[in-house]
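Incident log, entry 3
Record: Purple acid phosphatase (612 residues)
Problem: checksum mismatch between cached and fresh output.
Input:
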Amino acid sequence: MVWFWVLVLFTANLKFGLAHIHGGEQPLAKINILQTTVALHESASISAEPVLLGLKGEDTEWITVNFVNPKPSLDDWVGVFSPAKFDPSACPPVNERKKQLPYICSAPIKYKYANESSSSYAKTGTASLRFQLINQRADFSFALFSGGLSDPILVAISNPISFTNPKAPLYARLAQGKSWNEMTVTWTSGYDIDEAVPFVEWGRKGDLQVRSPAGTLTFKQNSMCGSPASTVGWRDPGFIHTSFLKDLWPNFVYMYRIGHLLYNGSVVWGKTYSFKSSPYPGQNSLQRVVIFGDMGKAERDGSNEYSDYQPGSLNTTDQLIRDLDNIDIVFHIGDLTYSNGYISQWDQFTAQVEPIASTVPYMIASGNHERDWPNSGSFYDTPDSGGECGVPAETMFYYPAENKAKFWYSTDYGLFHFCIADSEHDWREGSEQYGFIEQCLASVDRHRQPWLIFSAHRVLGYSSNDWYSQEGAYEEPMGRDGLQKLWQKYKVDIAFYGHVHNYERSCPIYQNQCVNKEKNHYSGTVNRTIHVVVGGAGSHLSKFSQLIPYWSIYRDYDFGFVKLTAFNQSSLLFEYKKSRDGKVYDSFTISRDYKDVLACVHDGCEPTTLAS
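Fresh output:
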């Protein structure tokens, strides 16, 4: 009987911790595309231009769509479909008894309301819209609908348009390899290995360039765990290529470009990029790290964003691009795209972050919107991933985990050692991941790498978000139960979390006790960990509790990110910046010597003996 009530309370806590997730809805999920009826009207029309895109090698272009509807209404809308041709024969029946096939069984990749650019549309029935398209390995068409999103009626279909080379290699993204002197390059193309050989041409700036081969991966519709990823949200992801650039010299600028060697001997080239290789672990130099969670993606043409689903995403992206010369590595700690089963959105996201990810390592963590799905092995039995169950995230990005399905790993950057946990798998004491976390924290040489950082998507530490405060513990249920003794034992400096869409910084804290009253500068012995929620990078914001806990030093209901600057082995600057202006709104410094890391603290002492 006792165990029964323990199980009941455990399940209730998990569900309580998840109660916030319905605060926003993937915009494409609002379209009831399977219920589309066809009422093509001879007086209705829609056309798109230009017809041929990317004539100068561009991977994105603006399109003008003109349309006429003799029976206009305020809820008319225009959807962008890719591939361009609707093929009802490929659709599964929506009514098994009648074997009724839907006319359209794939969601659009984006949409706009017809009256967005013309307030007189409902009277005139004539308007035009501007869309920005990226190369997504297939042609496009535009469709005019009446009936709103819930009961779509297809009125007109446009001419198809396409990029000159839909298969072109695109959207390069860097990540640290499994050693400090290895960089990985991942990109997307339409070339399978039976058509072309993928590779990266690279070398130090000004030196002879060499070529390194790339591996190729993809995933299929039957790899998805459920709908919409396996149904209306499915879109072929293309081929994902990763090359490993090894034995890099520290602190050098390298040039690289992605390419495919066709079997006729010609080469299809992507863009030329550059990156600066990582410093040697322990190197005493200026090193700058950006950390945030829950950014998502948004459309620069304004499509899809009628519900303010991810209103801060572009501001954060653009702020990072503006400051890119002052950033060395980025950590996006979960909830990457919020695609929620609409696979086309992964292309949109990789295109959005390409200016950042192609220049500095873009390290990721797993969040509930990447991984969680019932009966799929995720710790939380929720449908947050929209049926993706981790597959797109694990394929589209590289990260140095031993097992890609277990999204925990460590990585070094100069004076920093990072332990990245996976909050969507069991982290509790006795679990496989708990063992990894302790090993990761224990393995760092604090003389060479004094700055020890822990990170996970969900708040395993402290947050005064409203739903956590209602639960009473100010944390993800069971979050810090076993982990806090590891943070204390190994003297973790800062722990970062996303999931909660705001910013909050705690005092240095252990077992709910703050170590001192200082707020802006910490020095001396490393005694207790500072916990930071930095989940306000783009998605709709999360409210705080009305009561401000004693341990909460700074809270901000706005979009932003954190930047860490290590000046040397003894000095660290922490800055919280808002995405809308890039200005610093919260900061502190840490200064200390190696002896301060070694010093004995409560529950963090090495054993000693009285023997001489």
